[in-house]
Structures are given as structure tokens and as C-alpha cells.
Write a structure and sequence with these properties.
The protein is an alpha+beta fold and 137 residues long. Helix content is 41%, strand content 18%. It is globular. Bound molecules: guanosine-5'-triphosphate and magnesium ion. Guanosine-5'-triphosphate binds next to α4 and β4.
């Protein structure tokens, strides 16, 4: 498909970067299909990140992702998944390319400002986790 899913994580929202990040997403040619500010419960985060539940940082990840509001969005563009991951940069901001969202706004490997789906299949699952069909345009 031509869609991806993103969350502006609690660090980015707390630090007042919501508008600047949405502007970079817009400038990179993504169309907003769905958008909302929300806060995940522990159960939400454990489900959303279930693939990581054996990793040593899982507890920290769930704590972080639930400590404050996020901004969730479904985005549309040709080659959306790969182009969005290029726009956000490497998981660890120390390794992220100049000009990427994580280089600009992430503070650490854990608190890295933004999520981007890693496959078309996960983009659909993740988008539908946060948005009903009648919230997607
Ligand atoms: P997402 O777009 O958020 O999925 O990031 P990613 O695909 O670049 O990384 P990955 O899916 O491997 O990890 C998911 C998230 O777990 C990362 O974005 C980080 O927030 C967190 N994470 C990954 N590795 C570590 C780590 O070593 N320590 C901590 N504290 N968090 C980590
Ligand atoms: Mg990932």
C-alpha cells in the first residue's frame, strides 16, 4: 500500500515539537489520512509493541510511551513506509542523518521522538489499532 503509520512520542509532544514535526512531514509530501492527540494505556502499549516483549528494554518502552500524550497519524505517499523511515532517521539519534526528524528532535535511543511503521503489513495493523475506518480519509 501507499500508507504508513506514525506516532509523535511523549518526549516530542512534551518538548513542544508537535507543530515542527508535522510541518516536516507535510513538506516531505505526505498527506494526512488520520490525525489525533491521545494517550496510550499500559495495555495499549503492551499490545502495540508486543513484538518487542522479550527485549530487555520492553518495560522502559511501555513506561515511556504511556507517560504522556502522543500524536498518532496515518500518512499517505508513494513508497510511504520506506520514505517515512528515511525522513525520521536511525533509531539511535546519534546515528541519524543530518536533517532527519530524530537528528533534530530525539534525545536518546529510548526517547527518539517519533515512530514509523517498518512494513506495509504493520502500517495497516498499527493504523487500524489507533483509528476506526470512519476516522480515515
Ligand atoms: P519505531 O519506529 O519506534 O518502531 O523505532 P525503530 O523501528 O527504529 O526501532 P525498533 O522497532 O527496533 O524499536 C522500537 C522502539 O523501542 C525504538 O524506537 C525505541 O524507542 C525503543 N528502543 C529500541 N532499542 C532500545 C534500547 O536499546 N533502549 C531503550 N530504552 N529503548 C529502545
Ligand atoms: Mg520499529
Amino acid at each position: 500500500t501507499n500508507r504508513t503509520f506514525t506516532m509523535l512520542k511523549p518526549d516530542a509532544v512534551e518538548n513542544g515539537h508537535t507543530g515542527a514535526i508535522l510541518e516536516k512531514i507535510n513538506a516531505a509530501g505526505f498527506r494526512i489520512v488520520a490525525l489525533k492527540k491521545t494517550q496510550m494505556t499500559k495495555a495499549d502499549a503492551e499490545t502495540f509493541y508486543a513484538v518487542h516483549n522479550e527485549r530487555p528494554f520492553f518495560g522502559e518502552l511501555v513506561e515511556f510511551m504511556t507517560r504522556g500524550p502522543i500524536v498518532a497519524a496515518i500518512l499517505e505517499k508513494d513508497n510511504a513506509v520506506d520514505d517515512f523511515r528515511t525522513l525520521i532517521g536511525a533509531t539511535n539519534p546519534a546515528d541519524a542523518a543530518e536533517g532527519t526528524i530524530r537528528k533534530l528532535y530525539a534525545t536518546s535511543m529510548g526517547e527518539n521522538a517519533v515512530h514509523g511503521s517498518d512494513s506495509d503489513e504493520n502500517a495497516e495493523i498499527e493504523g487500524n489499532f489507533h483509528f476506526s475506518g470512519r476516522e480515515q480519509f
